[in-house]
């Protein structure tokens, strides 16, 4: 398991590095997205494979990944907010072409600050030390790995452990059956995180699972995407309410504030949430249903 973890981590480490130049350049937003996703997958891999390494071996790299992910995420989250707001404004009638002007200017300023901080971090010594040390660790078979048990019979091979690990993550998803649908939005966000953990576990071991695995991954990804859109709209709602409050307080002596467009966008985010919640029950029933459970069992049985 330790060497399987090293293989998984190195795959996503190389993807992180491959997208670093594009992230620095900033012309293709997908480079930043892919670099951030690589850090997320590595953090998920840490959670899954950590029991098979010495604790002190992973600790410094976990810290570096967290900081890298937070720095990239601060810019990426604003990219998503801006991209969706610009698309919404573009679909408005011509007479409302600048309806979101104050909001877009505010978010763009925040993004520029976050991007400057990101570049400072990527150019800094801490990031270089993290990357150099992590690469040495990942290219050193056996480094930090707990030795196989000698005087007791205890599982340590992929084929013995993966069924339990994957099913444990599926159990965590199914636990939401008792509250879904109709739970608070924060619970949907928690479900999204557990769906992500299940998806990553299936992806990490896809090459040793049965042919049923890719369709299962696609199904979990679709649920994660729906929940991600729901979370994005919920976060946008909170940020829009915050912006409207701050803007009105700052310009309270100015009559006729140009905020109708922002208020309309706020209502649109609430409508998106309602529409996504209405769509949720059907894919949710399929995800926790007998067909998914049966296919998952068959995919794992090849081990």
Task: Give structural notes.
By secondary structure, the protein is mainly α. The chain has helices at 2-18, 20-25, 29-49, 55-90, 101-122, 125-138, 158-174, 185-204, 213-250, 260-279, 281-287, 290-301.
Largest sheet: none
Strand content: under 5%
Number of helices: 12
Radius of gyration: 22 Å
Uncertain parts: none
Structural class assignment: mainly alpha
Please give the number of β-strands. 0
Task: Report how far apart the termini are.
Answer: 14 Å
The succession of helices and strands, N to C, reads HHHHHHHHHHHH
Mean pLDDT: 93
Principal-axis shape equals globular
Number of separate domains: 2
Residues in helices, as a percent range: over 70%
Element layout with pairings:
Blueprint: H1 2-18, H2 20-25, H3 29-49, H4 55-90, H5 101-122, H6 125-138, H7 158-174, H8 185-204, H9 213-250, H10 260-279, H11 281-287, H12 290-301
Quick recap of the structure?
The protein has 12 helices and no strands. By secondary structure, it is mostly helical.
Notable characteristics:
globular, CHAD domain, 2 domains, mainly alpha, 303 residues
